[in-house]
Amino acid sequence: MSFFLSFFFLPSLFFVVVVVYFSVSALFLFIPPINMVGTKSVSRRKARRAHFQAPSHVRRILMSAPLSKELRAKYNVRSMPVRKDDEVVVKRGSFKGREGKVTACYRLKWVIHVDKVNREKANGNTVPVGLNASNVEITKLKLSNHRKAILERKDRSTKTDKGKGKVTAADRAMQQMD
Predict the structure, then answer these.
(1) Which residue intervals of the chain are DSSP H helices?
(2) pTM for the whole thing?
(3) Domain spans of the chain?
């Protein structure tokens, strides 16, 4: 009887051992590739599609421009989304150096229009030339309550932790005094 039971259980036991072995080894062998980690894709095609099909509220953030050194020192913020009535200076392209006020942010075309950056058409009319927001520098912000809140939220000086980083000589002196 014991021979019969061992013969009967042997194949099923072998099957369980094999299944467990392969499932455990499969767990160790399956390391997700880098493009499966998280919710974003690293595919160039998908990234371009997400960029060019971005809705207006996302384009607003993507159409940001760096702040001038004075504004950066004042607000501790590197860049802000460009909006109408901001004053900018063109930093790249054939209109480099021109200063003016933003007259329009054309999100559908990914461009901004500056009041002194125009081109003459063949019939004599002048039309604004679209500029990429990254090619300008904001020199004066049009501040609203909403924008002030954004500047406070993005302020880098409040985000630095005192407990992180290198211990300076002044910190050591303060510790010795305590």
Answers:
(1) 2-29, 44-52, 56-62, 69-75, 145-154, 169-177
(2) 0.68
(3) 55-157
